[in-house]
Predict the 3D structure of the following.
Amino acid sequence: MIQIRDLKKRFRNNVVLDGIDLDINEGDVVGIIGPSGTGKSTLLRCIDLLEIPDGGSISIDGEKTELSRHSRSQTLSLRRNTGMVFQRFNLFERKTALENVMEGLVTVRKMKKAEARMCAEAELKRVGMLDWSGHYPKHLSGGQQQRVAIARALAMKPKLLLLDEPTSALDPELVGEVLETIKDIASQGFTMMLVSHEMNFVRNVANRVIFLDGGKIVEDGTPREVFDTPKSQRAKDFFAKMHLLRQPEYTI
Amino acid sequence: MQLLAEETNLFDFGLVGRQLPELLKYLPTTLELAALSMLIGLVLGLLLAIIRIKKIPVLRQIAAFYISIIRGTPAIVQLYIAYFGIPMFLKYMNLHYGTSFDISAFPGFACAVFAMGLNESAYNAETIRAALSSVDRGQIEAACAVGMTYPQALRRIILPEAMTVALPGLGNSFIGLIKGTSLAFTCAVVEMTAQGKILGGRNYRYFEVYVSLAIIYWAVTIIVERILKLIEKRLELPEQIDKKKDSVPETGSEVEEREAAVQYDTNTRPEKALSQ
Ligand SMILES: Nc1ncnc2c1ncn2[C@@H]1O[C@H](COP(=O)(O)OP(=O)(O)OP(=O)(O)O)[C@@H](O)[C@H]1O
Ligand SMILES: [Mg+2]
């Protein structure tokens, strides 16, 4: 059980998150959607303390952290309980796929090399990248890099996996393999927060969708509720715009 | 008689070669000076670079001040200051804190290493700082996200990558340092150049001895350059990698299981009850 309370973040005079409350059950896949610049990335980054919020708290399985004034050990423990998958993969350039996945296990979890290797190989296999374990990121396609990044995050056994637009830096033909991988791990019971512009995908993979706008949660419900019968005007406008973009060119 | 010899033998070509062994005896001193100073320069330079990158208050101002002083004064002046200053400092310690440093025994070699190490650190700090900040932020964030502390991220991720960037610059400065050790005479250290002067003083064949010195320094530089190139090569990531062939192929049933899971997921996965 993950409870986020009154999460606040602003950049100078730009209030990005204006008191977010969110309860997430174990195994939930929460899709986060909303207009560009509305603070979806900021929300995930605040949870992982890559951005320091101005206020709020998060508790994961009863372990509560005040986000704005936290000790170093709390920061580390929060980060160790969460995993992050970045838009631009952010693999360690000088490490092979296998070493990328092993790194956290050895350095942070203090696992023995051999044990870490076995874990890492299992994770690479899960995302279908075992055959590429000796490759460096520069030898991998974007989709492959993202799958390794997912394996790296999963290897740490996070209680909450944060995915920030995991496919939006990919060439269209590579999007499918990554979505397939995410769908796969979603079905294995990982708790996830997924920011994505792939509406159809969110609809398919999430069991709960949140629409973020103006620093607040505007819609919150099942995919069907949010996509098909949005209550707020802002969400309706957003979907209408999305829909227009999706029309084949000749009808415009 | 002497004059005649000089006229008939304006440049004693043989002497240039014959003096080499006498000079080479002091090559180890030169290299030790350079290596030890470089070590200090690297450690201190890294420290200064981290202070500047992490913008640590107070220390940051001190670091900027220190770098400014070192870069704003000639190396030879710094060496003299160390040579005369360190014994004075020890004398002061002895007087005021009752310590018993043996001032007369404090070697000029240590003063020279100290001064050249500090000098080197100020220049290395800039090279290392630039290299550290060239490391892509995303990788540092990724390291933080898996739960590494900053020292862990520094050691495991940032430094290995920054190293490859800093290496050419640091290599250059090491080569400069090897030649710069010839200033160590200011601290009464006899290294190669000082020995050359001594040899020249014996037979007044200064020109020959400096030519011999030039040859040695040049050769050393070439060797060091080669070694640096080798290290650079070793740090390079391979161009191409074979796809692993020996991994166990997925069994048919595993593939089926996974497909089944995906099918289940897309079509029939029940929407879980919401918490609210
Ligand atoms: N470091 C920063 N300094 C100042 N403003 C920032 C910073 N990071 C983000 N912002 C601002 O915060 C707001 C939210 O940004 P964020 O990246 O979270 O949006 P987003 O919902 O992820 O958008 P997108 O869908 O385009 O990725 C934006 O207005 C952005 O300009
Ligand atoms: Mg974003």
Chain A has a mean pLDDT of 93.
